[in-house]
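Our collaborator T.R. sent over the components below with a one-line note: 'Predict the complex.' Nothing else. No constraints on interfaces, no templates requested, no preferences about which chain binds where. So this is a plain run: every listed entity goes in together, and whatever single assembly comes back becomes the starting point for the next discussion.
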Amino acid sequence: MMKKRIVQLLLAAAGLLCLGVGLAQGGYQTTLAKAVRICMECIGIG
Amino acid sequence: MDKRKKTKRPDFRRKCIQLVSALLYNANLSGFASGTIYKGDLKGVCVPGLNCYSCPGAVASCPLGALQNALSAMPNKLPLYIAGFLLLVGLGLGRIVCGFLCPFGLIQELLYKIPGRKLKKGRWSRRLSWLKYAVLAVFVAAIPLWYAYTAGYPLPGFCKYICPAGTLEGGIPLVALGETYRPLIGWLFTWKTALCAAILLLCVFCYRAFCRFLCPLGAIYSFFCRVALVAVRVDEGKCDGCGLCTRKCLMDVEKVGDRECIQCGLCRHTCPRGAIYFGWERNKKHETETTVSDNAAGAGPAASGGVPEQ
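Returned assembly:
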């Protein structure tokens, strides 16, 4: 049980760290830039 | 007598949550009339479930599409933003997302309600369920990375060649609503439409066929089945190991809460002893009880059975 708690804490810390660094790197803008244009691959045209 | 056994419509609340989440994901209803997509700032945020960001109604991004797009930006930029998002959602909810927060899951469940003969689960379906991990490795990871490193341009393999949600929610409505895309239709659109139709037809006979055999997002969330904070759990003190929960389950589960469990919680109503419950990791009411994940380590009666064929 203790081991599981540690894994959960590590995953939560890793998730928050990744999200924070990703935001600082411009991950939000990258996602936004892709999502506001129609994805031709997604709709089966491009 | 457990109150839950008296419930006439045990799945009603979950269906409501599925419907509300589908509407929230696709709240840009005017897009369906105009044939255009939402372009607001919310599109930089992902929803937890599979929902194409090129759907006219979509107000946020698809995590799988965003992941492939982020992988395509390598090696210049690591996909940390979306990796962090998936880690946190997976840790918090695991495959509850599949059971409650996925519009394409809801569509499949509604199709399965069409009366007729149904395919029973068995060893064949359990084996086929590994296919989604291959789809994840090849179409979501390898193809975008290959193109990023060799050709230098993005190619979201899963979105382009497989995703039926993109075809159903994005491709078909946009082609039907606007004439811009009609001249561009080619073999790819034909392939994706045929594949989407085949998957939807299969879902009439086979419960959540896409989720069970193909969905890479479900594969990602399944990695968290042992550590998810909120999950369906078994009270080992009450469980007598009858195996009714896994026999009645329509997914390919071997144990309640394993990688194939979409955490719908319907087994709570089939358990004659009321031993199954939804719970947080630190649930005081059940704090002395072991979780399904702990049972999986060996001791629990719920862990004893293989996949019983219906």
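Summary for T.R.: The helical segments of chain A are 2-25, 27-35.
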